[in-house]
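Morning - zinc ion inputs below, output right after.
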Amino acid sequence: MAKIKYRFDPHTLTYQKVNKSINRKLRQGLIYFGVTIVAAVVFNIIFTKYYNTPKEHTLKSENEELVFKYKMLSDKLDEVERKLNNIEQRDDNLYRPIFEMEPIPSQVREAGFGGTNRYDELRKYSNSEVMISTTKKLDKVENELYIQSKSFDSVIKEARNKEKMIARIPAIQPISLKDYGRISDYYGRRRDPFTGKIRMHHGMDFTGPIGTDIYATGKGVIEGAGYSAYGYGKEVLINHGYGFKTVYAHLHQIDVEKGDTVSRGEVIGALGNSGRSTGPHLHYEVRKNGRPVNPFYYYFDDISAEQYDKMIAAAEENRRPMD
Ligand SMILES: [Zn+2]
């Protein structure tokens, strides 16, 4: 039922029925409507400022959980970084030195990414700090892993190369000292058994019965097998590669031919007394980059440190030059 309004007329002293015009009614309706809207908006602003809607509440707790997970991720990255640093330390101080490789400079290992605006994209977020620091850590670990894997690649390559080299460089004595052989002269200056003059002896001499087996001291290719023009009698020359060659002189018999490939420990001939020699013996030389070196340093496969010291002590006392 519509409400009927009355107005007091002072002239007639009576109440007159009020007849509102359509326009006026409409205007009033609009005002009410406007006020209601404004009130609703104001109320909503106040409410959302101090109270969360259920949706906001969910988002807020999700956000908190994400930040928490970011922090956990960051802690885990610290742990990964520590473990990685441990591997890097071992790489620089153990693996690389074994193969005579220089350590990787820390500025290469720790290299960051260029450009300060790399992380700008993340700055717009309210939790940008934890996001940026975690992303930075992740980038750093990724870079370090890359450098480390490259280093391991080169260590493996060196190891394979060294394996070949280790098989090739002279590493045993050319005659079995257990059964027959005995060292009779060492590398160095001493009196020549023929002329009596002080002269350099470029190898080591081993005495033993004629026909005693003589071994190749490392893998290699026979570069010479025949009679020497320089007083070495029947001699064998092995090229081991990596700058190493070995000479076996005064042989009685040669069992290999030029071009043959021999392995360490393979019999190449027999001990003899050919050439400029005062008695049955083997003259053994190791040459590195064309120069004779002390064969002493190339017995590491079959001589212990103790035996080695004894040999050095005996070197000066019991020399019997046979050339
Ligand atoms: Zn000699």
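Note: Residues 62-168 form one domain.

O.
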